Amino acid sequence: AQKTSVLSSKTVGTIVAVMAKEGDRVKKGQPLIEIDARDYRADLQAAQAALEEANSAAKAAESAITSAREQKDLAAATFKRYQPLVAKGSVTPQEFDEVRTKSNIAEAELARAEDNLRAARARRKAAEAKVAYAQSLLSYTTIVAPFDGAVTAKSADIGALAAPGTPLMTVEQSGPYRLEVQVGESALARVKLGMA
After folding, report:
1. Which of 40, 46, 72, 192 has its CA 20 to 30 A from that of 10?
2. What is the DSSP string of 77-104?
3. How far apart are CA 149 and CA 72, in angstroms?
């Protein structure tokens, strides 16, 4: 055979299905062995739920920024209007201090809302990475044929534990075969390259 591939699992789990036996012809991408995926599916669902939560938190943080920005703009405008009034004595220093404090608080609230948005976006990114990782692990529960060929060895059985590096099945590529033989020196003159 041109290519031989010894298939093993990339993850640990119980084998729940073996869909080929020795001598079977297989096509590239054809599922050959299925490993119990319940834990991996549960991990994926948990990761997807965390992603939904992170998306909601990011949307809430974006709304909070809009509100904080409007509050800051209003407080800044009010502060600007009060500055000439305090100089004329139209408002008391106490009233002016209250307006200035509200303006400072509004600026701090906007900064806090921006920090919250950055944190929510970071949590969303982490949740997206967890979903991708969980999907990757789940994909490892189905072992497929790497190319068209034939199963030449099967050591996987339903109920057995699959682990990384443990040979489960061997697939050899279909196609022309190469034969190597030893020829005695006395017969060498009768053998020619390409003989059938």
Report:
1. 46
2. HHHHHHHHHHHHTSS-HHHHHHHHHHHH
3. 69
Nearest to 35 by CA among 23, 57, 17, 22: 17
pLDDT value of position 176: 65
* 47-68: average pLDDT: 95
Task: Check if the beta carbon of residue 169 is closer than 8 Å to that of residue 154.
Answer: yes
CA distance 50 to 58: 12
pTM for this structure?
0.70
Q: What is the pLDDT of residues 115-150, one digit of tens each?
A: 999 999 999 999 999 999 999 999 999 999 999 999
**CA angle (50, 11, 45) in 5-degree steps:** 20
Distance CA 179, CA 38 (A): 45
